[in-house]
Amino acid sequence: MTAPATTPDELGAAEPVSGRLSRWATSTALAVIPIGLAFLISAVILALLGVDPVAFFGDIVTAGITRESGRFDVITRMAPIMLIGCGMIFAFRASLWNLGIDGQFLLAAAFVAGLGPVVMANLPVPLGWVVLSLIAMVVGASWTLIPSLLKARYGTNEIVTSLMMSFIGVYLAVVLVSGPFDGPAAVPQTDAVPRDAMLMDIPGTSVHIGFLVALVVCFVTYLVFARTSFGTRVDVLGANPRAAIHLGINVPRLIVVTFFISGALAGLAASMDIQGIFGYMRADWNPAYGLAVVPLVFLARMNALALIPFAALFSLMSIGGQYAARRAHIPSDFVLLFVGVLLLCMVGTQYLNDKRARGEPLLPHSLRRAGRG
Amino acid sequence: MDSLLSERFLTELIIGGIAAAIPLLYASLGELVAEQSGVLNVGLEGMMLVGAFAGFVATLETQSLLIGLAVGGIAGILVSLIMVLFCVRLGMDQIVVGIGIVLSAEGATSLLHSTWFSRSYPRVPSAEGLPIPFLSDIPVLGPSVFAQPWPVYFGLGLVVFMTWLLRKTTIGLNLRAAGERPDSLDAAGVSVVRVRTAAEITAGLLAGIGGAYMAIVAAGTFTPFLTNGAGFIAIVIAMIARGRPWWTVLGGLLFGMSLSIATALQLAGVKVPTAIVFMLPFVSVVLVLIIFARQSRLPSALGLPYHRGSR
Q1: What is this model's ipTM?
Q2: pTM for the full predicted model
Q3: CB distance B111–A153 less than 8 Å?
Q4: Is residue B143 part of a domain?
Q5: B238 CA to chain A: closest CA distance, Å?
């Protein structure tokens, strides 16, 4: 700023561009550094377990990128992650901790799978898909009502209530699939819809159109927060509920609405998975996306467009990781370790960046002194 | 239906319920201490899981319940140090770090289990009960309630101790102040960071012991994802208990007994979906929350990092 050669005019012209650029560089670095660290740490862990990390990560690339079917599987898996992630973005930007995703997701899945055969038998194909998805969204969203109403009316901590509702939802889904929705098969599972009534594939691929739906939802979510007053109201609520009240925002209603959207998107994710991949649901099916998607949302800094590459990375790690883990004779839960370590690395990187932004030295005082000897 | 009410059956039912309740009791007591100091310890499930694995390995090597529980507790403390570093010292988001701990612990214990025990599936010998004279002679209740392994009695003693500590001592006052008004505590010359560190380490210790008890006594073995959400149930119990340690006993028994009833019904061949029985304690807690919503209050600084001098 003290450089005498630049006139104020030039400064004014240059500032926004360089400011935007450096902000962009910062957020990229904040995503890339933790991912690199997480790869490094998990490579060390793999080596300690006696698994060759290079071969392991090579297998992930083989199974998830090189093979065409693997590539399609990875893209297919992205759909529920992006949808759930967008739902989380709505809730988290409002500082509402919807930790009940698994219950909302599974309950919606049970309804889609249970009602699917009846609905598809009576409605033409595209309309049936829409009706089932709407049912799923209503079911997922309605499962957020108790937490959100209690939060809005009495300020009851939504973490407890959404977690409780999640457990109830998961068990209720099991009850539904093994009871009223149980099909003729020997194991508790619903009737399957015929193959041609399931979501169609994107032409030329084996990826069902749920991926396109997820892309649209990501884009819309991005626009809501970038361009609409609703998005701004959610952000204000998240930053400071008291300020939101002073601005005349109807805070209780906004809490209920954001929670509702978040649950509806979890329901939509379930509808896409059931209608696109399986056509039926087994009572013991639970992909447990809930907690695993949280890190991606934070890595994307609650930006729905930035979520897409991270969803791709996670999807690659879980699809390719399954194959690599089988080849290395370790459980595929390795992916959980990777995501957990990634989250912790991210928090650490964020801390250092906050410090840098405040202009403080990165190393503690004592350590720097020791370094200088 | 005769078999359902037989003495032996009821005894087994109560023993199973208490076995499931004790890990919840320990873990939620630890969580309660952390929450009172203002740390929302979402990583509890991870601490229990790591404690369960470490405790199981230790008991397997030494055949000692005491050493197993101690090692489980130490492992829990080690995990809680992540929370201490990131959340208490550096003031980062407690929920994010907690979720990171849960995911890492799930992955790590599953990997370790498969590398060490994937083919052997070892078990530890069942823990011996410690019958209390006279009381253990009562039919049904005697052999079930009053002949438990010693950690059960120890846990109840711990509840009494914590009640005293929280209500009657300066330590308890400092703890609650760190959760309610950390700036006032700081102004009074007590380090908020130090109080919260101690509370968080206590949470790790008790969660680790709880997890170890689950593996060594309740299950007799370790399987991946052994805790199966118990950590989150314990968080809920602690939030409802709100600083009253006795409530962790009630909450633990409520969930423990329903788990035991579900297993028992299954064994007795009764045609009730077990999922419904598992669901009941959660439903009852949600009902309680709805009815008493107005009275539910958590420490006002819960989940908020404390930065000295910031407002």
Answers
A1: 0.85
A2: 0.87
A3: no
A4: no
A5: 10
**Beta-carbon separation of A295 and B294 below 8 A:** no
Distance from CA of A317 to the nearest CA of B (A): 13
Residue B204 structural domain: 2-118+152-295
Give the span between the Cα atoms of A329 and B296, in whole angstroms: 48
Q: Quick check: B226 and B55 in contact, CB under 8 A?
A: no
Q: What's the CATH number where B252 sits?
A: 1.10.3470
Give the closest residue to B206 by CA, choosing from B51, B87, B54.
B51
Q: Residue B45 has which token pair?
A: 């499930």
Segment B221-253, tens digit of pLDDT: 888 888 888 898 898 888 888 888 999 999 899
| A340: nearest CB among B107, B286, B289 | B107
For the stretch B260-286, pLDDT in tens is 887 777 777 776 777 888 888 888 878
Residue B306 domain flag: no
Domain boundaries, chain A: 80-289
Q: Residue A329, Cα to own-chain centre: how many angstroms?
A: 28
Question: To 5 degrees, how large is the angle CA A39–CA A40–CA A46?
Answer: 85
> What one-letter code names the amino acid at A62?
T
pLDDT score, position A331: 87
Residue found under tokens 């609409």: A228
Kindly report the nearest CA distance between residue A46 and chain B, in angstroms. 9
Q: A162: nearest CA in chain B?
A: B286
Those of residues 220-249 in A touching chain B at CB distance below 8 A are none
Residue of B286, B302, B307, B310 to mutate, interface with A, max A Cβ within 10 Å? B286
- As for how many domains chain B has, the answer is 1
The answer to whether residue B54 is domain-embedded is yes
Q: Which of A253, A217, A303, A236 is nearest to A95 (CA)?
A: A236
Name residue, tokens 């003290």.
A2
- Residue A283, CA distances (Å) to A185, A269, A289 in order: 12, 18, 17
Q: Is A297 in CB contact (< 8 Å) with chain B?
A: no
Q: Going by C-beta distance under 8 Å and a sequence separation of 6 or more, which residues neighbour residue A166?
A: A99, A100, A101, A102, A103, A104, A290
- CB-based contact, A88 to chain B, within 8 Å: no
Interface of A with B in 32-51 (CB under 8 A): 45, 49-50
Kindly tell me if the per-residue pLDDT of B34 is higher than 80.
Answer: yes
**Interface contacts (A, B; CB < 8 Å):** 143
**Residue B98 located in a structural domain:** yes
CA dist B311 and A65 (Å) reads: 50
pLDDT at B1 over 60: no
Write the residue in B100, B103, B236 that is nearest to A160 by C-beta.
B236
